[in-house]
Inverse folding.
């Protein structure tokens, strides 16, 4: 079971990262959601006991590890919150750049970086210029 | 005892304060402080010196160990004495300098601040006996010189020179620190006197002493790190005078004199000093003979003369250490006078080149005599203090053999030749540029220095005493110096005579050697260390540009460079440790089959997202995978997680769809069809990511826990928390702090989303056609409006017994509002109080939970303690138990409700604005 | 009971205040000032807590009054309070600075307060998962703050920042869950003692992902590619918060998890740690040299500077850990000063930046030289002479390069006179100057800093064996 759970977690994680590498902003957010899901799945499967729901009174078969459930809930909610934040950012990015394509947005970034390099004088004044003194004049 | 240092260190801030009040007063005030400090030093020295040694940073054995020994007294007197003269000179010179530059008088304040800081740090450096303290004062002088050399900050050349001086002296200063730390590591002390008794010859001394010596030599502008000094002439002339005679450059030989007790234990180091000193004499001498710019000539002469001092230290013996100290005094007096002469001449004529100057003896007789005396001192003519300086130099050489006799004579002759060039070039010969009247303040300081040089030729006692004491501090033993004229013919006298004759020959034979000297100068320029410096600085900038082109500037690369290095790290740690026996396949149970099936579905859904083109499909696949995950959680026996996961997935799908609706369809459509290059790379990266996740997760799941889980305690203690559901008790009580943090993140997100998309000033869309929803939807929305709240209340209250919690209740209640949004649109919904005040509701919830968490503190209980405590039955009102834990959950409910409603309303509002602005956004039937 | 209250105050004050200030308009000056007062109160309580910790040892309380391990332990030791104090100092300065400039966002004060609450919380918690939760509070607040002022590039930077760091958070979360899975506990002290009995082969992999996650936060080469865009794009006080306070998560995390919880694994991987530190030092410094924009130079400088922390961590032991703590503190303050100064014009600003630049280059009396001494000491303490030589040369070269880039940009931006620049608000300039003054004071009297760092290192060497 350990290897199977690990495999599933890894597949979900890898799918998420694959989406993170896409050029589409919305896919990136979906990637983050998937990656978070994989973490929650791992937390749940990292429980040290498995059994019935941990609600008292317990039956003989034993309960599932309640601590991982609490952790999973916390992680789930946090993941949801930041995903919502990311979606708002996606909309903002679209509103300002008129695109949800990362390549185009990155191109804008590059343009600005180049403009920055140009605006400041490329002459590097910190290096001393050639010495002006020609040595000794004939006297 | 600390008085000299205190006065010297106070001078800078005091002058700055005066300067801020009235710029004109800064100079005189500084001069007054310098005079006071000089007096205090003299008094302190005459009354027997003294020492202070207090702990500074005891954890590291750093001490404020200051002592006014001979060496300290010598350099402190030079720093304050020459400082005084230079400040007097500056009080006239600087206003003119500023005037030429078209700068306000107030700029002068920073000049006085830094030159006095220079003085103060020199006094401190002279007195410091602790290597780290020395390092501190050492770098303080570097800072002061940096600002003084770059004083003409509008001038790029000036700034470049300042940077060069800082880089050369600042970076080599780090070597001093390293040397100090190496010595400390071996001997456990930074104190120079203590180290002198502990350190023996050996590689450690050679390394540490060598590093310290390099720092000293760089500061003293010794070959090959000499090139910054001629550049430093970019500073106003009084600064040059100070820098060359009593401060910066003198600091270098001061350091060598200070650590000399260590250095002289190593033949290797003494020999190295000799080599560097002789090379510097040669390079400085030859180049001084070729320079045309006054200050450059003087700068190279300084290099040569400090080369001489270093040579004397290298020669060793009592004459070496004591004579070196004596030479420093003579040089300081003469060199400062000559620099000030150059300044005055340039100020009077507007020219700074020998080739355009000459014949000034008639218009400026006093200056001619005064600087003639200084020149005589520098060239060691009899009847000046310089004479004895050279006597000791010769005496030290005599002890080492004929080779050194020749070298010293040649060096002295060269000094004579270039000093003559300087003085004769200015005052003799044909008239060059005509001088203007100059203030007496620009002449008399030179005259005073010249006079001291002359007086020192007769009244040698004080100089002798001071140098002897300094020599004693360096040498460790007595260094008797005999500065008096003798009737018999000493070998030193013969050497002096030889030097004069050779010097005269050099002067006369100028046309013969001049081309060769110029050739050497050109060679130095083409292949010298300054060239190397320039190439290194330039090269580093070019390399930096080159490296910058490799810098990754897109998100894909940035993500890859998180995942791949992590994978490499994990891979490396797996490879480094044989994994056999650590990883277990783990047993499969028959009743695991449904769980495994559900997990398979999760995996399939996740992988599918990679192949989906259309955005809406993507959202659906994602939510599908989320809901199947909930099923997985169910099989893991986690009903609380199931509930929250389902609700979260619902909200998330809703928000995702909302976002898609905010973006015009054509954009989405185009995006979905854009090519996606680099597939192989993406697959590689995500496979690597999956691989490390797999390794970590499998490893963790295979490893039996090292101890019993704390969860068992949670189950056992749940009745004490008055709960039946262990998970809810954990969330609200055992790990309430986590929950508090989690909901804080949630409210933060609301704050963030509200800031990013909720506050745009765009007008509310009114009267726009809202997408019609069917009557059925509206009906359902009306029907469900109230029941959702009832369900929410039930979930909230029942949480402690059954499955449920404040979070779920909040989301469920919010769904009622969401449904209204979907049915009636933004217009009709935004008026509902819960919507208008969603953020306030949310933060009120946060305050409630924080209040519940903090209240126990008032009762002397730990934070987040819930009441009633274990063992006390809570009050029952119907089925509701009155407990603070319930109140805590209620706060969460409020928070989450406000959050969910607020979030949806922000998105809904944006949608309605978008639709008003851009009707194209509306999805056409059948397309979306 | 005093302890139970005292340990809650540093995070609690800004936390509650944030919830209160969320109701009002943060653009009003008084709101910002109240926020700053809250931060000052938090700092004051931290100073008090520090004194108590130094006098009486670790201060501990368990939330909810449950037995240790069942409830979440809050544990204030010298390491935690040191990082908390310096972080809150930088945040306080940034807050005052922005109030002087004029706050543009309603939510700015509560967001900043929550960064502070999250940071102090994570520095003072003794529970691994709780650490993650606090970490998320400060991260989420920072994601939003990175977009402050809402210029195009700021929103873009915020998105990059959020996505990359969320990925890092997930990696970290996986690490935490793995730790629970192999030890059965979330309490740091318990985890530390239980991992000792485990096969190191199964722990080292977990250590590797946690290490990677913190390197990402710290902005260490090659995990740093998100950093320049974010630091350059952010509004100066935000950049100061990110680099001077938030990045401390990385340094602290490496020390706490590496030095305190998984010391055996850290020792095992010390070579890798040092190699990464080296790469970062060289790469950051090389990049910084020819960058034009002041913030950009300092962003790359940040990458280089954290390399020293890694180097010290790799050396380990009392000297190494002391150096790592000390360098982190000094680096935070340096970055606070230079990023704040980079956004201003006018008198005092150049002076403040110069203090920061001197500090980065390790020139006394600015405090940077104390950090430099610490890393040199740590390097010299290594066993083999070859390692010592290599490390010393590396640190020397790194510091030489830092001279070059700091002063190239200083001269271009501050020393060279520029026409027609309007000076920034006096109050903002005074804030920067005061922070620079703090750097000078710590350089002139370094004992408190050294003592505190030593005590912090003792926490680790004492606990980890």
């Amino acid at each position: 079971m350990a290897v199977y759970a690990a495999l599933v977690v890894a597949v979900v994680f890898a799918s998420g990262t694959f989406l993170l590498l896409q050029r589409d902003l919305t896919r990136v957010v979906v990637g983050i959601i998937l990656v978070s899901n994989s973490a929650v799945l791992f937390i749940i499967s990292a429980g040290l006991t498995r059994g019935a729901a941990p609600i008292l009174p317990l039956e003989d078969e034993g309960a599932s590890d309640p601590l991982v459930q609490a952790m999973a809930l916390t992680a789930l909610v946090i993941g949801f919150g930041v995903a919502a934040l990311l979606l708002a950012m996606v909309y903002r990015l679209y509103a300002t750049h008129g695109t949800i394509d990362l390549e185009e947005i990155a191109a804008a970034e590059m343009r600005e970086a180049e403009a920055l390099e140009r605006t400041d004088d490329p002459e590097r004044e910190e290096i001393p210029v050639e010495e002006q003194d020609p040595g000794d004049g004939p006297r | 005892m600390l008085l000299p240092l205190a006065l010297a260190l106070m001078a800078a801030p005091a002058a700055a304060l005066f300067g801020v009040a009235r710029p004109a007063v800064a100079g005189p005030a500084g001069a007054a402080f310098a005079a006071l400090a000089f007096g205090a030093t003299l008094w302190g020295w005459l009354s027997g010196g003294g020492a202070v040694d207090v702990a500074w940073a005891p954890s590291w054995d750093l001490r404020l160990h200051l002592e006014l020994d001979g060496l300290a007294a010598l350099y402190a007197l030079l720093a304050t004495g020459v400082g005084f003269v230079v400040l007097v000179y500056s009080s006239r010179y600087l206003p003119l300098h500023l005037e030429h530059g078209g700068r306000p008088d107030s700029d002068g304040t920073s000049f006085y601040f830094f030159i006095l800081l220079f003085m103060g740090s020199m006094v401190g450096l002279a007195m410091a006996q602790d290597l780290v303290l020395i390092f501190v004062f050492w770098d303080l002088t570097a800072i002061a010189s940096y600002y003084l050399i770059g004083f003409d900050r509008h001038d790029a050349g000036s700034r470049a020179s300042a940077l060069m001086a800082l880089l050369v002296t600042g970076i080599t200063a780090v070597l001093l620190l390293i040397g100090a730390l190496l010595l400390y590591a071996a001997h456990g002390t930074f104190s120079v006197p203590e180290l002198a008794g502990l350190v023996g010859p050996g590689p450690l001394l050679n390394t540490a002493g060598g590093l310290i010596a390099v720092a000293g030599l760089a500061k003293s502008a010794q070959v090959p790190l000499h090139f910054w000094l001629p550049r430093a002439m970019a500073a106003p002339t009084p600064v040059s005078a100070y820098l060359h005679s009593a401060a910066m450059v003198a600091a270098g030989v001061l350091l060598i004199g200070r650590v000399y007790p260590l250095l002289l234990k190593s033949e290797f180091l003494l020999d190295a000093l000799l080599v560097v000193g002789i090379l510097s004499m040669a390079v400085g001498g030859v180049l001084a003979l070729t320079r045309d710019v006054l200050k450059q000539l003087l700068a190279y002469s300084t290099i040569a003369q400090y080369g001489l001092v270093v040579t004397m230290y290298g020669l060793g013996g009592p004459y070496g250490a004591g004579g070196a100290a004596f030479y420093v005094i003579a040089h300081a007096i003469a060199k400062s006078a000559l620099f000030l002469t150059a300044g005055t001449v340039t100020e009077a004529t507007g020219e700074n080149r020998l080739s355009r100057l000459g014949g000034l003896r008639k218009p400026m007789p006093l200056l001619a005599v005064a600087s003639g005396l200084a020149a005589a001192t520098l060239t060691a003519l009899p009847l000046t203090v310089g004479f004895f300086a050279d006597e000791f130099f010769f005496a030290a050489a005599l002890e080492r053999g004929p080779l050194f006799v020749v070298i010293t004579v040649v060096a002295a002759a060269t000094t004579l030749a270039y000093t003559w060039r300087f003085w004769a070039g200015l005052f003799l010969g044909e008239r060059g540029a005509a001088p203007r009247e100059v203030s007496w303040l620009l002449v008399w300081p030179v005259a005073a220095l010249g006079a001291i040089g002359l007086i020192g030729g007769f009244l040698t006692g004080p100089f002798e005493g001071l140098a002897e004491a300094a020599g004693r501090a360096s040498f460790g033993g007595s260094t008797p110096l005999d500065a008096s004229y003798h009737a018999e013919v000493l070998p030193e006298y013969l050497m002096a005579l030889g030097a004069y004759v050779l010097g005269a020959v050099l002067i006369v034979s100028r046309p013969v050697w001049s081309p060769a000297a110029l050739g050497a100068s050109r060679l130095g320029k083409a292949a010298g260390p300054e060239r190397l410096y320039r190439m290194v600085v330039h090269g580093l900038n070019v390399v930096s540009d080159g490296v910058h082109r490799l810098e990754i500037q897109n998100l894909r690369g940035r993500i890859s460079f998180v995942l791949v290095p992590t994978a490499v790290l994990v891979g490396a740690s797996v490879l480094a440790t044989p994994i056999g026996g650590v990883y277990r396949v783990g047993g499969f149970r028959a009743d695991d089959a449904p769980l495994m099936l559900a997990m398979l579905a999760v995996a399939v859904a996740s992988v599918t997202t990679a192949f989906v083109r259309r955005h809406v499909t993507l959202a659906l696949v994602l939510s599908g995978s989320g809901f199947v995950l909930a099923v997985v959680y169910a099989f893991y026996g986690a009903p609380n997680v199931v509930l929250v996961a389902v609700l979260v997935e619902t909200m998330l799908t809703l928000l995702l769809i909302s976002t898609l609706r905010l973006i015009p369809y054509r954009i989405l459509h185009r995006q979905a069809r854009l090519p996606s290059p680099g597939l192989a790379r993406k697959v590689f990266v995500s496979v690597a990511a999956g691989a490390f996740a797999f390794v970590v997760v499998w490893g963790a799941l295979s490893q039996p826990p090292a101890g019993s889980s704390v969860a068992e305690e949670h189950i056992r203690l749940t009745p004490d928390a008055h709960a039946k559901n262990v998970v809810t008790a954990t969330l609200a009580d055992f790990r309430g702090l986590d929950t508090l943090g989690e909901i804080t993140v949630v409210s933060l997100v609301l704050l963030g989303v509200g800031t990013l998309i909720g506050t745009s000033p765009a007008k509310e869309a009114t009267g726009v056609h809202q997408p019609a929803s069917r009557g059925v939807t509206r009906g359902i929305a009306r029907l469900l409006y109230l029941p959702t709240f009832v369900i929410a209340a039930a979930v909230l209250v029942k949480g402690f017994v059954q499955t449920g919690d404040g979070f779920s209740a909040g989301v469920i209640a919010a769904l009622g509002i969401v449904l209204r949004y979907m049915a009636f649109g933004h217009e009709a919904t935004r008026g509902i109080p819960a919507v208008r005040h969603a953020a306030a509701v949310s933060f009120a919830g946060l305050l409630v939970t924080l209040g519940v968490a903090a209240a126990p503190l008032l009762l002397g209980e730990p934070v987040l303690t819930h009441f009633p405590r274990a063992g006390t039955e809570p009050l029952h009102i119907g089925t509701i138990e009155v407990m603070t834990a319930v109140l805590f959950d209620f706060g969460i409910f409020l928070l989450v409700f406000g959050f969910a409603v607020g979030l949806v309303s922000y998105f809904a509002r944006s949608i309605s604005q978008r639709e008003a602005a851009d009707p194209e956004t509306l999805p056409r039937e059948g397309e979306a | 009971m005093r302890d139970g209250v005292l340990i809650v105050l540093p995070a609690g004050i800004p936390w509650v205040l944030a919830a209160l200030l969320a109701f009002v308009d943060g653009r009003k000056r008084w709101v910002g000032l109240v926020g700053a007062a809250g931060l000052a109160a938090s700092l004051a309580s931290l100073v008090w807590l520090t004194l108590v910790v130094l006098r009486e040892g670790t201060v501990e309380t368990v939330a909810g009054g449950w037995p240790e391990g069942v409830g979440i332990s809050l544990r204030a030791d010298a390491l935690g309070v040191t990082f908390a104090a310096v972080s809150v100092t930088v945040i306080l300065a940034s807050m005052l600075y922005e109030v002087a400039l004029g706050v543009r966002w309603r939510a700015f004060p509560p967001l900043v307060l929550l960064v502070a609450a999250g940071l102090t919380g994570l520095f003072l918690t003794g529970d691994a998962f709780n650490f993650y939760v606090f970490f998320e509070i400060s991260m989420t607040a920072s994601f939003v703050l990175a977009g402050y002022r809402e210029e195009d590039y700021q929103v873009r930077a915020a998105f990059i920042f959020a996505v990359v760091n969320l990925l890092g958070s997930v990696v970290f979360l996986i690490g935490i869950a793995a730790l629970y899975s192999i030890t059965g506990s979330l309490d740091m002290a318990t985890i530390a003692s239980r991992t000792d009995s485990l096969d190191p082969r199964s722990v080292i992999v977990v250590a590797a992902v946690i290490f990677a996650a913190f390197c990402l936060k710290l902005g260490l080469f090659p995990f740093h590619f998100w950093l320049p865009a974010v630091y350059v794009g952010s509004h100066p006080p935000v950049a100061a918060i990110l680099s001077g306070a938030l990045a401390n998560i990385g340094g602290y995390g490496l020390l706490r998890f590496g030095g305190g919880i998984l010391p055996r694994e850290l020792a095992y991987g010390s070579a890798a740690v040092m190699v990464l530190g080296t790469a970062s030092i060289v790469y950051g410094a090389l990049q910084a040299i020819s960058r034009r924009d002041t913030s950009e130079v300092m962003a790359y400088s940040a990458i280089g500077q954290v390399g020293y922390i890694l180097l010290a961590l790799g050396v380990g032991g009392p000297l190494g850990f002391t150096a790592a703590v000390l360098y982190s503190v000094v680096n935070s303050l340096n970055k606070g000063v230079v990023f704040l100064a980079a956004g201003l014009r006018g008198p005092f600003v150049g002076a403040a930046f110069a203090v920061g630049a001197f500090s980065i280059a390790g020139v006394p009396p600015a405090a940077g030289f104390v950090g430099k001494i610490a890393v040199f000491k740590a390097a010299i303490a290594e066993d083999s002479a070859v390692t010592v030589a290599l490390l010393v040369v590396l640190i020397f070269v790194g510091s030489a390069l830092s001279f070059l880039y700091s002063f190239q940009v200083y001269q271009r931006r501050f020393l060279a006179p520029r026409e027609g620049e309007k000076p920034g608000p006096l109050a903002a300039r005074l804030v920067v100057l005061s922070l620079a003054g703090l750097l000078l004071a710590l350089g002139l009297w370094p004992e408190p800093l050294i003592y505190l760092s030593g005590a912090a290192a003792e926490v680790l060497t004492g606990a980890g064996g």
User: Anything to note?
Assistant: Chain C is about 80% helix and 0% strand. Chain C has one domain: 2-464. Chain C has a mean pLDDT of 94. Residues 216 and 223 of chain C are 5 Å apart (CA to CA).
